[in-house]
Amino acid sequence: xxxxxxxxxxxxxxxxxxxxxxxxxxxxxxxxxxxxxxxxxxxxxxxxxxxxxxxxxxxxxxxxxxxxxxxxxxxxxxxxxxxxxxxxxxxxxxxxxxxxxxxxxxxxxxxxxxxxxxxxxxxxxxxxxxxxxxxxxxxxxxxxxxxxxxxxxxxxxxxxxxxxxxxxxxxxxxxxxxxx
Amino acid sequence: xxxxxxxxxxxxxxxxxxxxxxxxxxxxxxxxxxxxxxxxxxxxxxxxxxxxxxxxxxxxxxxxxxxxxxxxxxxxxxxxxxxxxxxxxxxxxxxxxxxxxxxxxxxxxxxxxxxxxxxxxxxxxxxxxxxxxxxxxxxxxxxxxxxxxxxxxxxxxxxxxxxxxxxxxxxxxxxxxxxxxxxxxxxxxxxxxxxxxxxxxxxxxxxxxxxxxxxxxxxxxxxxxxxxxxxxxxxxxxxxxxxxxxxxxxxxxxxxxxxxxxxxxxxxxxxxxxxxxxxxxxxxxxxxxxxxxxxxxxxxxxxxxxxxxxxxxxxxxxxxxxxxxxxxxxxxxxxxxxxxxxxxxxxxxxxxxxxxxxxxxxxxxxxxxxxxxxxxxxxxxxx
Lengths: 180, 383
Fold this sequence. Notes:
The structure holds two protein chains of two kinds.
Chain A: H1 2-8, H2 10-13, E1 18-19, E2 22-33, E3 44-56, E4 61-72, E5 75-89, E6 93-108, E7 118-136, E8 139-153, E9 156-171, E10 175-176
Antiparallel strand pairs in A: 1-10, 2-3, 2-9, 3-4, 4-5, 5-6, 6-7, 7-8, 8-9
Chain B: H1 3-13, H2 29-42, E1 50-56, E2 61-67, E3 74-76, E4 82-83, E5 88-93, E6 99-104, E7 109-115, E8 122-130, E9 135-140, E10 146-151, E11 156-162, E12 169-171, E13 176-177, E14 182-187, E15 193-198, E16 203-209, E17 215-217, E18 223-224, E19 229-234, E20 240-245, E21 250-256, E22 263-265, E23 271-272, E24 277-282, E25 288-293, E26 298-304, E27 311-313, E28 319-320, E29 325-330, E30 336-341, E31 346-352, E32 363-371, E33 378-381
Antiparallel strand pairs in B: 1-2, 1-33, 2-3, 2-4, 5-6, 6-7, 7-8, 9-10, 10-11, 11-12, 11-13, 14-15, 15-16, 16-17, 16-18, 19-20, 20-21, 21-22, 21-23, 24-25, 25-26, 26-27, 26-28, 29-30, 30-31, 31-32
């Protein structure tokens, strides 16, 4: 079904020639959390979602603000970050690269007599890349975004990977993309 | 591959999942890559591993560590140390790996903790179980039905029946009196015999354990060990019993008489150790014995003759173990050995050489130490 929509939308996307001034992404994310760093036996998948906004300063350079929340296996994570983004624009798609700097809040739900769990907030930094396919003039499908995060919580370090997919909504008009 | 495995493979390749013939989807790399990555992430597996729990009397807490099966490395578990009562001492883990019990020596009670099955973290379940004065040593039998407690200042033994689903403790009888100052306990793997070390008398008191948890003195008990007897261990095959004589700087080795639980000292016993042996650990094979020498800051290693019980010191030993090691312990696989140093607040990790001629049984310091937030006194590992 997804494949059918994908195929059917290709003709529409040919009209998507404008470069937006501002993008908003919303979608699903899966974070592979470095749980062994805090004593868990294995890397743990934390499922959730995220929202990000990107302001395109030039045709290729922008600033993105990113937040995501993920949970599972007695763990919760909230990440917020900001960083530069570089976009390679194609007629039907974009490939972007970004750096992210911010904070991560990790919570482990291990019930105690006086509290419900343990929480730690620490800095995070990382980066990643993604691929957007232009579905409609104002909407793209983020086929995949993959980001690496290094975080410092619970007095130790974590090396996480986050995979995201969803929709990107375009606002404003920055310029025209070159036809291939 | 089993039948289920084949079926899973077919789901991805079978006709049912193919698109209708009128629609062609070109499966380029850009389309298949996300799917592959998601499958990769989704395939993160579960590997069984062990957790270790260490009591911290001055901090009134218990630290928890994950043991890496492949390296022996200890990683502190999030939230650790967890709060206990006052002056926690002995700690034991249920064979079911669901519960940990900690004796709070100043409070004269036992804290019951539930082990979080995912993280290994601890959550205390109230109320605590009262004990007589100064619970100084605890041991649980192999099937997890009884918890035995030695109460040093009360000079008696408590036996508790364990509720397997809740970990709750119920005293099976009034405490059983012992001579003054019992300090250490060991129960045999069969659960039939309990041995109690008395430091003042330098002796081992033996008891048979009934199906209901009742204790009855073994004929011939007590059995004389050495001065300052402080620690006791039984080998996994229930052939021998070992006692560390901290003042005599020796270990006494006894053969266990299977029918009665009586003890017979093996030829050559006692065997010399370093200065002030205070803790013993027998490997799961029963082949090696390690002794923590608090006075000489090292661990002595011995090979045990499986028939006679004769202990031969490893010529490569003793193995340096930090300042004042108070405890030595092996992991459940017999691959790693750990020693606790109170003064340094560290747990030193060793790899036990399990293959190769003359190096068999040798301890190699992994060059890593885990730290404890406060001086530690006891440690227990999940089976």
